[in-house]
Amino acid sequence: MQKIDADFESLAYQNVISSGEYLLGTSKEIDQKTEQAVLKKLAYAHYFTKNYEKAEEYFKKSLNGKSDLNQDAEVLLRYAQVLSANGKRAEAAEAWKAYSTLKESKVAAEDFAYIQRNPEPLNRNNSSYSIEYLPLNSTASEFSPMIYGDGLIFVSGRPKYNGVKRIFEWDDSPFLDLYHIEDREELNQLNTTTLSGAGRADKRSKALGSDFYTPETANDGPTLSYMATTSAWEQPSIEARQVSRKLNSVYHEGPADFFNNEQSIIFTRNGIGKLKYENEDGLNRVHLYIADKEGKDWTNLRAFPYNSGEYSTGHPAFSVLEDILFFVSDMPGGFGGTDLYFSVYKDGLWQKPVNAGSQINSAGNEMFPFIDDNNQLYFASDGHPGMGGLDLFSVPLAMNGKPEGRIHNLGAPLNSKYDDFGLVAQANFTSGYFSSNRKNGTADDDIYSFTRTGTMYGCKNVEILASNNGSGKPFVGLEFKYYEINTPQISWSGQLDESGKAEVCLEAEKEFYFEFDENKVDYKKIFFSTHNLSDIRPSQLVVELKPKEVERQQEKIEEVVPKVMARITDTRFENYYAGEIRGNNDEPVRDVKVRFINKCTGEVKEAVTRSDGKYAFLRDKECDYEFIAMKSGFATTYEFIPGEEPKKGLLAEVVSNVMPSSTKKEVVTSSNSSFFDPKVFRVGDVVQMDKIYYSKEEYALSAQASENLDQLASVLNRYPDMVIEVISHTDSRGSAKDNLIMSQKRSEEVKSYLMSKGISGSRVKAIGKGEASPVNQCVDGVQCTEAEYRRNRRTEFRILQIERI
Known about the structure:
- The chain has five domains: 2-123, Alpha Horseshoe (Serine Threonine Protein Phosphatase 5, Tetratricopeptide repeat); 127-452, Neuraminidase (6 Propeller); 478-545; 561-663, Immunoglobulin-like; 686-801, CATH 3.30.1330.60.
- It is an alpha+beta fold.
- The protein is built from 14 helices and 42 strands.
- The longest helix is centred in the last third of the chain and has 21 residues, at 736-756.
- 19% of the residues lie in helices and 30% in strands.
């Protein structure tokens, strides 16, 4: 027992397993207390060495086969985790439910139980990704890939056969080193194994659905793929070499990141020699070390200033500006096992590390961070609700390192019931690499590549609840349509059931409008955002609607003849058209469906006139538009509206052919009204401003922009509760990293200008999207005209709040 205790304290888990199983198998007079202690240590030893089947066996024995309120909370947590990893959903759900009553992290544990019973939300985006097993993998562990130049750096425990057998007592595996492949294209050329979240078999197997380490689908059968029955694929078919003897030591080297134009590296390793940290328990923990490139090798090896012998630091990841370093540590004061921390590099010094906070860190382990060129943080965690083991998550970061928005589980097939971690992504998450032990479910980690062909997060369940705002009774059978606000020409329809409810699945991280049957209820356009929605639980959209008053049928027969309506005025501002519809009695006409069709792009926008007959549309002032006004009982009105610089080939004769000359009205231009007026726009609307910046300083405000921003400041002063987002975009030329930085500076410049006009900074949220959200097909690799690029270089304002709720 003394040996078992000593080995457990020194993390020699393989020794614990040998001694513990020997003791239980030979000693017939062991007392119950000692037996329970051995069972618990054996369970943990198998858990940490990734033998989850044996871990389940011993955790279950240590719990006496129960998962009630009187059990050890830590044991119950690990038991729930291994049940999830072993695919025993029903038992895992019960264990998570029991654990939720023991810990403060009640919500997270309840969500774990929920996802075990209802795994579909994390599986539904399977078809958006294809997964490839890479030919660099061996029988040892390979994980944590990192892009370096045209190549790939990764961690491997493959033996080096240099006459010295270096074995890690944790699990009797070789020590880890950094390896390098110089050309990533070789991975694609030599790859022989293509997997799919939809269950497609590998290229060497004829049986459909035969891969056994992606989530099960209707195509999957009991036959294992070729990979499962042979070790031929376990031998790497592409040569990798050690990075450097000056970086690799006789102990562990782990995940790394590069900075300073890849001329410097920060990496994880055990301390050795003068760089080893002493501590009372005698453990040689891992820490962060930095080195610089000199010629073909690395020199000037030095320690990160916040290393300590009392805790570990590792798994480094730089922010997009390389002024903030994220890393993993189990230093005192955290939320769980290992947490994410960050340190700011300022005035040549690393500042004291800051815990990344409870939004990111949990009671479990957060590890393996990576930050892409859009400042999106990816990390692995077993403490946030997921599919089992370590799951991959993402969250956007502000430029100060703080998370912005909700954490998302990336779902299958990137995640599985096993450990999935060590992700690195490229090109707006359209491709990348990650690590997983899904093939065997043990400590045998492998590296995979992924390609995204669909949405990043899939769709989120939303339950619509509609009632009469007078009586509270549900609207039974009411029809509605909904569409993403940027593509109103593509819409979907639905109908409320007998309880006034309906369920829809909306694409994540998008904004939508809902419109209800205007023949039965007063027109109401509902804005709904899927930003920050739960990955696993349905969200709700609660709507109160007013039934439409039934008009008395006392109209004379002659009044049934369609009436004429006319567009009385059209006011052109910098970024929108605003106008008014009147009838032949010169009275404003309400509930007219007004459609604006952009003849440059084909984009269709719709609105409905209010009681004063008014409407407004965002516009591109250089494009022609077709205007259509429709209302029951009125003749449909068509009109052609030329842009300020009419396009060739578009004929204004269209107007003459479809519209009587008596209905044409002169366009009136006004500069007195303010754009961005809450009387015209609503919460959720986006107002776009063109040509805010001169190219000379790239983010300095132009004189014209200052004039427009003065109008915006005036509106914000008139509406003291109004809150807006300033969102800047660039085109796709140049690097994604530089574009993200530039767009953020542009948004912050606008925010600073508004603050100089007396607007509180808390009312203006500055966001830079870089090249991530184009309005057309001008992305990397696509040649476009300057006019097409210009459409993507834009700054938008989104109304988040007009009046305090």
